Amino acid sequence: MENKIVYLNGDYLPLPEAKVSVLDRGFLFGDGIYEVIPSYSGHLFHLDDHLQRLENSLAGIRLANPHTRLEWQAIFTPLLDANYDQYIYLQITRGTADKRDHAFPDNVPATVFAMCSNIVPLASLNTGIKAISMDDTRWAFCNIKAITLLGNILHRQLAIEQGCAEALLVKDGYLVEGAASNVFAVVDGVLCTPPKTNKILSGITRDVILELAKKNNIAYREDNITFANIKAVTELWVTSSIREIVPIVELDGTVIGEGSPGPVWHTMYNILQAYKQTLL
Ligand code: PDD
User: Fold this and answer.
1) Ligand 1: which atom is nearest the Cα of residue 182?
2) Cα 239 to averaged position of ligand 1 atoms, centre (Å)
């Protein structure tokens, strides 16, 4: 096990020494939420946006935020190494009660855990990835970044077992998002991504891409992507904090566009890299 230093409930300690009780509600019920925050050369990327989403997720599960935004930043900073591109994984659960009971416990402090890992760029970024589509079997609150990820991991695992890197999820006839990513399509030359609803996680990378599209006069719209028309899309991407923007070149065995990362992806990828540099 890696011997890095992690944060647990007020202490910084080596990873092997970070332990929580088997009665922790995260372990027993998946009763908690999480965040994934990239850090480029020691600078946390869009920290306020991530902390806003954290507040929304906490409100969504009716758990009080144990820290102010400044306190969160102070907790993360000692975990970062400015020599690397990294990400903070933060998890907050409803704490450890003295017995297993579905109802919320009274006066139990939340469990707060944070660790930092290096971002390993996807080897196939420049050639694109394969994906498969499947019906979205997750729950009704996909806007909450809940640690209860069984639906997501079963989707992702099915994709991997078919030689694909991501599962694209279809709900009510629309492409909604990936198992751990948001989705973008280029339709008739317009960059399109589903609107923010409880059917998707409101991705920070997604929002940044839309902002950058606006600033750079790239035609875009937030609109449903009809799965029945998927053959008409010329580009398909997935986005996330860890993988940034990844082009999909094959879906369900059918080539997308020219079968290689498309021109809009190249443009947006370069814009995003340049934008990251401006924040350092
Ligand atoms: N997941 N949708 C889902 C279901 C996700 O799990 C993620 C990210 C996203 C993209 O959100 P963002 O751009 O803010 O990373 C969308 C993270 C990376 C994870 O679970 O590890």
Assistant:
1) 16
2) 8
- SS3 per residue for 25-81: HHHHHCCEEEEEEEEECCEECCHHHHHHHHHHHHHHCCCCCCCCHHHHHHHHHHHCC
Sign of CA dihedral 206, 165, 134, 149: negative
Amino acid identity for residue 150 in this structure: L
Handedness of CA 138, 117, 165, 270 (dihedral sign): positive
Q: Which pLDDT band, with edges at 50, 70 and 90, does 3 fall under? A: confident
- Structural domains in the chain, CATH included, are 5-118 (3.30.470.10), 129-278 (3.20.10.10)
- Check if the beta carbon of residue 207 is closer than 8 Å to that of residue 241: no
What is the 5 CA–ligand 1 centroid distance (Å)?
24
pLDDT digits (tens, 9 = 90+) for 259-268: 999 999 999 9
Residue nearest to atom 5 of ligand 1 (CA): 180
Is residue 145 flagged as an active site residue?
Answer: yes
- 0.85 surpassed by pTM: yes
